[in-house]
Amino acid sequence: MENTIVIKGLTDLEKIVLTTIAEGMYAEVGFSDVTIEDVVIESKLDSKIVRGVISSLIKKGLIVADDVYGFSPEPKRTFYCLTEKSYGLVEEYVGEEGILKAIIA
């Protein structure tokens, strides 16, 4: 698996949430508008479970939280984005800016 990053040591729930976030990524590298609500809907997991898993993925350096301040009625939203460690999970990113394909083992 030369030129491939293998992401190891994840629980089954972490794999589901990380994959769900990766599937929601689009546009340029690093851009995301994936919210916790999106992850809950797509993964069909309870929101409390998703919050805990997101916290764990942040601690592992695989995702980051980006607070975006807007206007009422939604003055603040938190978007979740992959990090350089996990960009390669998005097929469209592979090859851009030296990004290697990533797989979850």
Describe the structure.
With 105 residues, this protein is an alpha+beta fold. It is built from three helices and four strands. It has a two-stranded parallel sheet. A two-stranded antiparallel ribbon has the order 2-3. Helix 1 crosses helix 3 (47-59). The longest helix is centred in the middle third of the chain and has 13 residues, at 47-59. The model has no long low-confidence stretch (mean pLDDT 91).
Average pLDDT level: 91
Apparent shape: globular
Given as residue ranges, the uncertain stretches (5+ residues, pLDDT < 50) are none
Helical proportion, percent range: 25-40%
Major sheet strand order: 1-4
Topology order in helix (H) and strand (E) letters: EHHHEEE
Largest sheet: 2 strands, parallel
The N- and C-terminal alpha carbons lie at a distance of 12 Å
Rg of Cα set: 14 Å
Range of strand content: 15-25%
- Put simply, the count of helices is 3
- Based on secondary structure, the structural category is alpha+beta
* Total beta-strand segments: 4
List the helices and strands and how they pair.
Layout: E1 4-7, H1 12-23, H2 36-43, H3 47-59, E2 63-69, E3 76-82, E4 101-104
Parallel strand pairs: 1-4
Antiparallel strand pairs: 2-3
Short descriptors:
105 residues, alpha+beta, two-stranded parallel ribbon, two-stranded antiparallel sheet, 4 strands
